Amino acid sequence: MSLSNLFGLFNRSGLTAVESMEARAGEGDADAQFGLGLKLATGEGMTKDYVLAVRWYLRAALQSHRSAQFNLGTMYSDGHGVQVDKTESLLWFQKAADLGHPGAQHNVGIAHHHTSLSRMPRNASESRIEAYKWLQLASAQGLHESEIACELVIFQMTDEEVAEGHRRVTAFAVTEPVGQV
């Protein structure tokens, strides 16, 4: 047995792990597309290439892969491989949040909080309620920073707004889709 086989660098077909992942990604496997995007974005096992990472993330994101949607939102937010586009970033964060991704839920909650600080009172109330909802959902999945942010949002909310936010959290939890990590 060769050293490369001993250490699992090659699979049974003789392809390296990266080649195998590329083949599965090319066949439409969303997990492989996400994994390839991640390797390209981090430079793990291959040359870092944000533009290609975005392409693979997009292919997986279009198949409702919530982590790919989150990472794509991050790429648009940070301008890695694409122009900075906060609107496009929020669109992808929202898609991932809807599928239960805690980091995306946090980002959507923070975006609603910021909006609540800049809107007219009627619209600010809706933004505060949505901020509360998304931050509570992220906090329930263990994001401590979401718990802290939610406490700050609550200071600006009426009792009625908190009650409505809680109702929305409960409604989301009942209908939350099961998805990938």
Q: Mind explaining what this structure looks like?
A:
The chain is mostly helical and 181 residues long. It folds into two domains: 3-85, Serine Threonine Protein Phosphatase 5, Tetratricopeptide repeat (Alpha Horseshoe), CATH 1.25.40; 103-175, no CATH class. The chain has helices spanning 3-6, 17-26, 30-42, 50-61, 66-78, 86-98, 102-116, 121-140, 144-154, 159-175. Helix 3 (30-42) packs antiparallel against helix 4. The chain is elongated and about 60 Å long. Mean pLDDT is 89; it is low at 1-11.
Short description:
The protein is mostly helical and 181 residues long. It has helices at 3-6, 17-26, 30-42, 50-61, 66-78, 86-98, 102-116, 121-140, 144-154, 159-175.
Key attributes of the depicted protein:
single chain; Serine Threonine Protein Phosphatase 5, Tetratricopeptide repeat; 2 domains; 181 residues; elongated; mainly alpha
Extract low-pLDDT stretches: 1-11
Query: Helical element count?
Result: 10
Q: Please give the largest β-sheet.
A: none
Architecture of the largest domain, CATH level 2?
Answer: Alpha Horseshoe
Kindly estimate the percentage of residues that lie in beta strands according to DSSP. under 5%
Kindly, what is the distance between the CA atoms of the first and last residues, rounded to a whole number of angstroms? 35 Å
Mean pLDDT: 89
What is the CATH level 1 assignment of the largest domain? Mainly Alpha
- Give the ordered list of helices and strands: HHHHHHHHHH
Alpha-beta classification: mainly alpha
Q: Work out the helicity level.
A: over 70%
Shape category: elongated
Secondary structure tally: strands: 0
Please name the fourth-level CATH homologous superfamily of the largest domain: Tetratricopeptide repeat domain
Task: State the domain count.
Answer: 2
As for the CATH topology of the largest domain, it is Serine Threonine Protein Phosphatase 5, Tetratricopeptide repeat
Radius of gyration: 20 Å
